[in-house]
Write a structure and sequence with these properties.
This protein has 242 residues and is mainly β. It contains no helices and 19 strands. The strands form six sheets. A five-stranded mixed sheet has the order 1-11-10-2-7, with no helix packed on it.
């Protein structure tokens, strides 16, 4: 079971992006899938998973998208840490993530469930070039606030945990982003800056609650931006005829 993203009908892409809590019942992976990871807060370099019997160490950072990792086991994606207990190295499960079997590419956004960073929850995003082609901006609101946006000529409201995707013209090199947060039934301006864009890339904007900054006022909401080029879509297998 998963929950579809609610998107602006005027800018509905060929496939709807699916967006679900990863605590749902696991679905089995039937083919090789490329996984990338992003951490909502901080850096995590001790998580691992098993693929075809091999242990794979991953990086999940708040500042950059991780490299792509292949996952083609017919099992849920289980992230674990290796810790030493009573002189022995043991595996401790950090998260069990249900990623739909039909995906070819998935971006997994992790968030620690405890201060000790022993367990994680997360959401997955269909990261394929079909769902997220070049020339699009995907906004994910992981903050606690409702946010009102104006990007270029488009205006929309993004509730907490909401998502919105929109295209941008390949002929421009920046878009002005204006955003207001709803605080006690009043709207307060939190952003008013240009966003660089360019042809051939896609943009992910991750909104989270502001983190303390040394020597400056804590932002109400942080906006993290990530740029990349769409991955190559694997070719469908050719059918043979007699």
């Amino acid at each position: 079971m998963n929950f579809p993203l609610l998107m602006n009908n005027a800018h509905r892409l060929p496939r709807l992006i699916a967006f679900t809590l990863m605590t749902l019942s696991p679905l089995l992976s039937l083919h090789a899938m490329e996984l990338r990871f992003l951490n909502v807060e901080g850096q995590e370099h001790s998580l691992k998973f098993t693929n075809k019997g091999e242990t794979v160490a991953i990086t999940a950072d708040e500042n950059t998208l991780s490299p792509a990792y292949q996952f083609d086991d017919t099992a849920p994606l289980v992230l674990f840490k290796e810790v030493v207990k009573e002189g022995k190295t043991v595996r401790v499960t950090a998260a069990t993530l249900a990623v739909p079997a039909e995906l070819t590419h998935a971006l997994i956004i992790l968030s620690a469930s405890d201060k000790a960073l022993t367990t994680y929850s997360g959401v997955w995003i269909d990261d394929s070039p079909v769902t997220r082609p070049a020339g699009t901006i995907l906004l994910l609101n992981r903050s606690r606030y409702s946010l009102s946006f104006k990007l270029d000529a488009e205006e929309f409201t993004l509730e907490s945990k909401g998502v919105h995707q929109m295209p941008f013209s390949q002929d421009i090199n920046r878009i002005v982003v204006q955003a207001d947060a709803k605080i006690a039934d009043k709207w307060e301006r939190i952003f008013g800056n240009p966003l660089p864009v360019r042809a051939g890339v896609r943009v992910l904007l991750l909104l989270r609650d502001g983190r303390p900054q040394i020597g400056s006022k804590t932002n109400l909401v942080d906006m993290l931006s990530f740029y990349d080029r769409p991955p190559v879509q694997p070719e469908a297998p050719h059918s043979s005829t007699q």
